[in-house]
Amino acid sequence: METRVFDVSMLWQSLPALLEYLDVTLLVGISSICLGSLLGGLLAYGKLSRNPAGRYIAHGYTYIMRCTPSIVLLFIVFYGLPQLAEALFDWEIDDWHRGIFAVITFTLLFGAYISEVFRAAYEAVDKGQYEAAVSIGLSPWQSVWQVMLPQAAVIALPNFGNAVINLLKEGALAYTIGLIDLIGKGNLIIAQNFGAYGLEIYLACMLVYWVMTLAIEQGFNKLENYLAKG
Amino acid sequence: MLMSIRGVSKSFNGAEILKNVNMDIDQGDVVVILGPSGSGKTTFLRCLNFLEQADGGTMEFHGEKLQLASASKQAIADIRKKTAFVFQNYNLFANKTALENVTLGLTAGRGISKREAREIGLEALQKVGMLERAEYYPSQLSGGQQQRVGIARAIAVKPDVILFDEPTSALDPELVGEVLQVMKSLAQEEGITMIVVTHEMKFAQDVATHVVFMADGVVVEEGSAEDIFSHPKEARTRQFLQRILPEQFEMAALI
Amino acid sequence: MELDWEFMEETLPKVWAGAGVTMELTLLSLLLALPIGFYLAVIRLHGCKTLQGIVRSYVSFVRGTPIVLQILLLYSLLPSVLNVLVQAMGWQINIFEAVDPFWYAVVVFTINTVALLAEVFRSALNSIPRGQMEAGLAIGLSSLQVYLRVIIPQAMVVAMPSICNITVNLVKGTSLAFLMTVKDIMAIGKIAASFGYNYLEAYIDVFFVYLVLCTIIQIFYHLVEGRIGAFRGKRA
Fold this sequence. Notes:
The complex is a heterotrimer of chains A (230), B (255) and C (236).
Chain A: H1 8-19, H2 22-48, H3 52-66, H4 70-89, H5 98-124, H6 127-135, H7 140-170, H8 182-192, H9 198-229
Chain B: E1 3-12, E2 15-25, E3 30-34, H1 41-48, E4 56-61, E5 64-67, H2 73-82, E6 83-86, H3 98-110, H4 114-127, H5 143-156, E7 161-165, H6 173-189, E8 194-197, H7 201-207, E9 210-215, E10 218-223, H8 225-230, H9 235-244, H10 246-254
Parallel strand pairs in B: 3-8, 3-9, 6-7, 7-8
Antiparallel strand pairs in B: 1-2, 1-4, 4-5, 9-10
Helix pairs in contact in B: 3-4, 3-5, 4-5, 5-6, 9-10
Chain C: H1 5-17, H2 19-46, H3 49-64, H4 67-89, H5 95-98, H6 101-127, H7 130-138, H8 143-173, H9 185-196, H10 199-228
Helix pairs in contact in C: 1-9, 1-10, 2-3, 2-6, 3-6, 4-6, 6-8, 7-8, 8-10, 9-10
C-alpha cells in the first residue's frame, strides 16, 4: 500500500461541504436534548417521588441505560422499533427518516443521564427553602415551581452542559445507521475519492466538533457566571 | 536565646501584612501572641515554619542565622525538623489513624524504626489523653479530640519549639477546655517552648511567660501577662482588651 | 412481533465469548492509561507553562471530539505511520498483516482514557485540602513523602467513583472496536445479526452481555471503594 503525504489543503477544502451537513447533526442533537430533558424530568420526578414503583422504574431504567453502549441501543431502536410498531399497531415505519431513529435513541440515552443530574440538583437545594416557602403560605406546587426548581436549575447547569456536550459526541454515531450528517457526508467524500483523504476528512470533522464543544463550554460558563451574580 | 527573629516583613498583593516584626524566644518560654484578626499574627507564625515565605527578615535558631526570604531547601527542612506546628483546623492526615498521624513524622521524616516510633507515639497520645483512640481515624474523632492528636503529633517529634496557630478557634465552646488543659500541662509540666496565637485570654494570663500584642502587622506592645493585662501602655492594646475582656477590664479600672 | 428465541439462545454464548476480548481491551487500555493519566495530571498541576498548555490542549481535544472519529482517524493513521517506520528501519514486515488490529484499538482507547483520567486525577489531587501538605511539611516530611503517603492515597479514594465511571464508559466505548475489525462482543453480535437477518435478537443478546459486564465492574469498584475508603467512616 502506498503511503500518501498528509494534504492540509484537502482539510480546508472539505470543510464547507461538511459544514453544509452540520445542521443535520445539530438538529438530531438539539431534538434529542429537548425531548430527553422532558424524559429526564419525568424520570427525576419518579426517583424523587414517594411511590416505590415509580422509584424502581426510574432507577432501573437509568441503570440499564448506563450499561448500554449507545451503538447497541441505536441498532436495537433502528432494527427493533419498526418490528415493534408493526406488531403492535400495524404501522409501517421502515421508511421513516433515519434521523428519527437517531433522535429516539439519543432521547432515551439523554433522558437517563440527565435525570441523574436533575435529581442530584434538586436534592442539593436546602430543604429549608421549601419549608420557608410553605410557611409563608405558598402551596406545595408553588413552592416547588417558584422556589425549589429555579435554584435546582442553577445547580444543575454545569452538569447539564457536560451532558449536552457528551450527547453531541454520542450523536456522531448516527452515521452508522446511514444518516447523512457531518460524518456521513465525510464518509461520502472519502468514498468519492476511493478511500483517499480519510485522515484529512476525519480531522476536519474533529475540528468542527472540537470548536462546537469549546463554544458550548464557553456558553455554559458565561451563563453560569451570569446566574451566579443575579 | 533559643530563637531570635528580626525584621520580618511580608506583603500579599501589595498589602503589607507584616512590617518589621521582631521576637526573642528563650528555652521554656510560652509566648502568646494576641491581636485583632488581620493583625498578621497567623502569617507571622506561618513564616517561622516557612508555610509562608517572608519577604524579608532573619531568624537565628540555635546560633545559626538565616534569611527568611532566601533560605535553602535544606535549611527549611532543618528548621521544620526542630519545630512543630499545630493548626487551627487540626489538619490531621485523613487517611491515617491517630497513632499513624503521630508516628509518620518519626518514621518517614526522621528515619526512626517503626517499633520505636510506635512507643513514642503511644506515649505522646497518652500525654494528651488520647491513648484509647489510637486506632481511630480523624473522621471518627470530635474536633477537640482531633486537636489533641494534632498536639500529640507535634510533641512526638520532640521539637525545640511548638507553634500553635489559634488551636481552639475552630472548636465548639465546650471542647475548648480539654485542648487548653493539654497545652497548659505541656507548658507547665514538660516545660515545652511554645509560641501561641490565640484569643483565649485566660490561657494567656495563666500560662504565658511573655505576651505580644500585634495590630496592623506590627508589634504594638509586649511584656509579661501582668504588664499587658493590668497595665497596658498603648491605647490600641487597651481598646483591644476592652472589647475582648470588658468585665475584667472594668474591674481592673475600678481597683 | 415474534422474537426468535431459539436464535437468541444459540447466539448468546457466542456473543458472551466476545466478553474476553472486550475485557482485555478495557483492562489493558485502563492499566496503560492510569500511570500516564496520573503523570499528565501532575504536569497540569506542577509542570512548566508550556507543558501545561500542551497537556491542556490534548485533554481538551480528546474530550471535545467523538470517540468514533478518534477511532476512524487513528485507524487510518496508525498502520500507515507504522508502515513508514518499519520501511525506514529496512524490515521486511507487512504491517497490514502482521499487526492484530486489537493493538490499534488498545492505542486508541488508551489515548482516549488518558485524557479522561488526567482530568479526574487533577481534580482529585486538587480536592485534597492544602492543610494536609502543610501539616506534612511541618512535621518534617519532604513534599514527595507527603504526596506519596498522604495526598495520593486520599486522592485515589476521591477519584474512585470517577474511575469506575470511566471504566464502565470504556467497556461501552470498546463496542466501537468493530470499526477496527476487532472481534469483541459487538463485532460477534453484528456478524450473527447480518447472517440470518435477526438484527434485533442479536443486539438484544449483545445488550444483555454488556449489562452483565457493567454490573460486575460496578460491584467490583464498590467493594474496592469500601476497602480503601475505610478511613472516611462515620463517627464510631
